[in-house]
Design a protein that fits this description.
Elements lengths: L1 H22 L5 E12 L2 H8 L5 E7 L1 E14 L2 E19 L8 E21 L4 E20 L2 E21 L4 E14 L2 E15 L4
Antiparallel strand pairs: 1-3, 1-9, 2-4, 3-4, 4-5, 5-6, 6-7, 7-8, 8-9
Length: about 210
């Protein structure tokens, strides 16, 4: 069912983006780059429940990293647009020590997981002044994730992929007709084989508009 919903969602968003491209003129297109902090609230529990064989004597979890998103968009109306972007959450990592009594060799154990993806979204804007406004962004993320774990004797890696809905909200400010600034809080939920990971990303982005707004 989730694959069906993902296919339908991608099709709907792709159709919206195609409509935007077909109805927009050169002045309605924009591109931008956002940078911020991506945090997985489930990462520590996932490692503890999945990879700790009972031999960990200590573990240091890092569930946040610097993420970024590059995007292009097309305005359909002054308050509605469609966007295509690439988001990278970077990496969550664990540095643990094993006493060697179960599966892992005695000594350090390292785990990491990273994810990125291509998103399609629609953006609705609510102006609060001539230069400022609020926005909500809804869409579908087609993601890929990779995972590695190792001890002193070696290790292994795996990968996963999928498509899931996400939403974001934030504010925008137009510096001038060509340059805008966006602050955004995005919420992603990645339904992986190992469980569901909720990833939040707080970012600040700059956008360049190819023509007068």
């Amino acid at each position: 069912m989730s694959r069906v919903m993902g296919t339908l969602g991608r099709g709907l968003l792709a159709a919206t983006l195609a409509l935007a491209a077909g109805t927009a003129n050169a002045a309605d297109f924009y591109a931008g780059l956002g940078v911020g902090q991506a945090t997985s609230k489930d990462y520590e529990d996932y490692v503890a429940n999945t990879w700790d064989d009972g031999s960990f004597t200590s573990a240091n979890f890092d569930d946040s990293d610097t993420g970024y998103r590059v995007f292009v968009g097309a305005r359909i109306t002054p308050n509605f647009s469609a966007e295509l972007g690439h988001v990278d959450f970077d990496e969550g990592s664990t540095r643990a020590e094993s006493d060697g009594t179960v599966f892992y060799a005695a000594g350090p154990v390292r785990h990491s997981v990273s994810a990125d993806g291509l998103d399609l979204s629609v953006v609705g804007r609510l102006p609060v002044s001539e230069a400022a406004g609020l926005h909500v962004r809804l869409g579908m993320l087609n993601w890929d994730a990779s995972e590695k774990i190792s001890d002193s004797t070696g290790g292994f890696s795996g990968s996963d992929d999928g498509s899931d809905f996400f939403f974001a909200f934030g504010g925008e400010y137009s510096v001038n007709e060509r340059v805008g600034i966006r602050a955004e809080y995005a919420f992603y939920s990645l339904d992986t084989d190992g469980g569901t990971f909720d990833v939040d990303m707080l970012s600040v982005a700059g956008a360049f508009y190819f023509g007068a707004q």
